[in-house]
Design goal:
- The chain is an alpha/beta fold.
- It folds into 2 domains: 1-30 and 127-220, P-loop containing nucleotide triphosphate hydrolases (Rossmann fold, 3-Layer(aba) Sandwich), CATH 3.40.50; 36-126, P-loop containing nucleotide triphosphate hydrolases (Rossmann fold), CATH 3.40.50.300.
- The protein is 49% helix and 15% strand.
- The chain is built from 9 helices and 8 strands.
- The structure holds 2'-deoxycytidine-5'-monophosphate (DC).
- 2'-deoxycytidine-5'-monophosphate binds next to α2, α4 and α8.
- Residues 13, 35-36, 39-40, 103-104, 107, 133-136, 184, 188 line the site of 2'-deoxycytidine-5'-monophosphate (DC).
Length: 225
């Protein structure tokens, strides 16, 4: 039985997409590609090079010029990939709160989405890829053979994100994370362009109370279906 060549995983922030995507890719020997990294890298570039993210034209032009690269990790510090912006390692910078706070705005810009989507299609069409994001099943690869949409309550997602941040040794308040997630959910699903939503043919996986192993087993059943 042929395995799906492109697997799309979408869903809200901290729904477990990246953990599932990474494990699934490992099991199948596929490339794992987290598309959120690209929007985060553009946001970080705008903060550093422009000092602001609200100038849509300037941010868009920047997104068309910068080179974003992913490569297998060269440092063992918990990273899943090295993220490079014009050759500079920005793996952890793109996880900073100022990126969290601004990435939704940047990812709603039309030209930014276009530039990122073109790159995502180029990488994905080689096949053998698990691609993770918000609009993979609806916009980037509507032809993907398997589409999974993960859902979990905002409280559960905030708890997961809080644990991750604390484990990295950073100080943060739980309420702040919860608030930021709520704001991003509203922004990501309310935007006009490629809003976050399940494709009509996506399989919805509800992950509240499930361990990553249980979610992975459900996803593997869908792959083998
Ligand atoms: O998955 P993440 O939290 O790293 O994504 C960061 C932001 O990027 C998120 O707020 C929405 C945006 N995003 C998007 O619009 N489309 C994608 N395919 C992936 C991410």
């Amino acid at each position: 039985m042929a395995k799906p060549s492109i697997i799309a995983i979408d869903g809200p922030a901290a729904s477990g997409k990246s953990t599932l995507g990474e494990r699934l890719a490992q099991r199948l020997g596929y490339l794992y590609f987290d598309t959120g990294i690209m929007y985060r890298a553009v946001t970080w570039a705008a903060i550093c090079k422009l000092g602001r993210v609200d100038d849509e034209n300037a941010v868009s032009t920047l997104s068309e010029l910068v080179e974003i690269d992913l490569r297998t990790p060269t440092i063992k510090d918990g990273r899943k990939a090295d993220v490079l912006l014009d050759g500079v390692d920005i793996t952890w910078e793109i996880r900073r709160p100022e990126v969290d706070a601004n990435v939704s705005e940047v990812s709603a810009y039309r030209r930014v989405r276009k530039a990122m989507t073109v790159q995502q299609r180029r990488i994905g069409q080689r096949g053998g890829v698990v691609m993770v994001g918000r609009d993979i099943g609806t916009v980037v690869f509507p032809e993907a053979e398997l589409k999974i949409y993960l859902v979990a309550s905002v409280e559960e997602r905030a708890k997961r994100r809080y644990r991750e941040v604390i484990l990295r040794g950073e100080a943060v308040e739980f309420e702040r994370i919860l608030d930021a997630l709520r704001r991003r959910d509203a922004y990501d699903s309310g935007r006009k362009l490629a809003p976050m939503r399940p494709a009509e043919d996506a399989v919805i996986l509800e992950t509240d109370g499930l361990s990553i192993t249980e979610v992975l087993e459900q996803a593997m059943k869908l792959v083998q279906r």
